[in-house]
Every structure is written in C-alpha cells, then in structure tokens.
Predict the structure of Cellulose-binding protein.
Amino acid sequence: MSGASASPHGFATVRGRERGYRPEQVEACVAALSEERDAAWERAARLTVLAREMEEDLGDLEEVVAQLTSQDYEVLGERARELFRLGEEEAAAVRERARGAARELVEEARAYADGVREAARAHADAV
C-alpha cells in the first residue's frame, strides 16, 4: 500500500493527506503550462501581424474596386448578350410580380384593419 493519494488535479500527495505534492510532478505541469502560454503568445503575435497585413490589403482592394468602371456587356458575344438580356427581363418580371403581390397583401391588410376598426367601434358603441 502506498502512502500517496491523488489530488483533484492529478498530483500525487505525499506525507499524509493533502500536505504536499511531488515536486517533479508540479514542475512538469508548470513547465507544460509555460510552454503552452509561450506558444499562445507567439501565435497571438503572428495573428496580430497577419491581421494588420490583411487590413492593409483590404484598403488596397477597396481602392481598386472604387476605380473600377461599371460592367459593359457589349464585349460579350451575341449569345451571351442575349442570355444576359433574358436574365434581366426575367429579373424585372420577378420584381414586378413581387410588387403586385405586395400591393395585394397591403390592400388585404388594410381591408382587414378597416373591418377590425369597425368592429371595435361597434363594440365600443354597444358598451
């Protein structure tokens, strides 16, 4: 039977219950934690540098995008221009259907609200 028991952190206790830990275990754990901390600091420093570089790249790219002209599809072939035109027409039709549906929905909501308002007035007059 051994006189050593284990702590909640995995260290073996010595000299009776919870009076001390084996120094080599504690030193090994502290060394491992120190290595992890140092690695984390190094990674944080690398990520900070990378973030700065990416911010600079972002600024450069924003300038490039700001100088771009609008897209001209005339340089495309006839079939590509036709496909593009059809896509624009379809998009316009979808937008118009959505606007129509929205108008109908608004009209239905107004009619419903008018009905509720009239019912509320009738109830208020009755009370």
